[in-house]
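Sequence and structure are no longer studied apart. As an example, we show below a sequence and the tokens encoding its fold:
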Amino acid sequence: MNTKIIVQRLAFFALVVWAASTIVFFVPRLSPRNAIRERFGELARTGGFSPGDIEKLIASMQQQFGLDKPIWEQYWQYLGNILRMDFGYSLSRYPMTVTEVIMQSVPWTIGLLLVTTVLSFVIGTLLGAVAAWPKAPAWLRSIATPFILLTGVPPIIMGILLLFFVGFRMKLLPLGGAYSVGLVPNWSWAFFADLMVHQILPALSLILGSVGTWVLSMRGMGITIQGEDYVNFAEHKGLSPGRIFRDYYVRNALLPQVTGLALAIGTVVTSAVVVEQLFGLPGIGTALNLAIRANDFPVIYGIVLFITIAIALLMLLLEFIYPVLDPRIRTN
């Protein structure tokens, strides 16, 4: 991949981040709500503050957060802060910074996304390859069918069904939360086991509906590859079916799967955000939901930009990795 292509990819990445930043800045300001006024309004209702004192506090906080400046001045200051990766303070959780809010939530989301994405991709790819391989046993090819049927079920619906049947009816797994009430997070095996048990239902909500997508795409590629000359040549050479399946069949069908993985990253992230709220996990989704409810502009900016930049970086990384996997698309 030459320098021109790299520069084009980086320029497109910068354009995506700028566009997302601009949209995120202006959309929350369409709301008539004022997070600072709402917070101090709650203090006023508890007593101890006169209306005049409240107004002075509101004016002081708006000045501190720069909300008293013209909108375009706020916008340019906002872009400058993004370049410095400084998202400021949370309006609803002051004096916490936006970075602190994100850092508290990110590990939960990354853990859930990493496990579910890898498992669904690996399971779906293997099942799809087996489903299309004519020499595979019939019972093994039939395993992929239930996952294909679940493809159209959204993760939120899958989560509700799992909560009702597995958690509520059968009482096999916890209904929600990151860990049991009363436990203090630590590095013990007991806490780790409890943590894993609480992650099973959220993970299944994301995995069950996404495996079928990888099965279908891999199965389609596998059927296409069966008639290729290099597969027929390998068979006539007398190579074992296992080697043909591994080196000639799966290896070549896997390349489009990587492209599909890049395109699916955004869907996976947004699905995880919704599932986190359903199961009460303290991840990015829950933090974003609380920020939207409180009309907390800085936290909304920070989280949405964090998600956007993370997705854009992953797609950029996959674009650089893909020529390594497939030498045919390398640009000299």
User: Anything to note?
Assistant: Residues 156 and 275 are 6 Å apart (CA to CA). The first helix runs from residue 3 to 26.
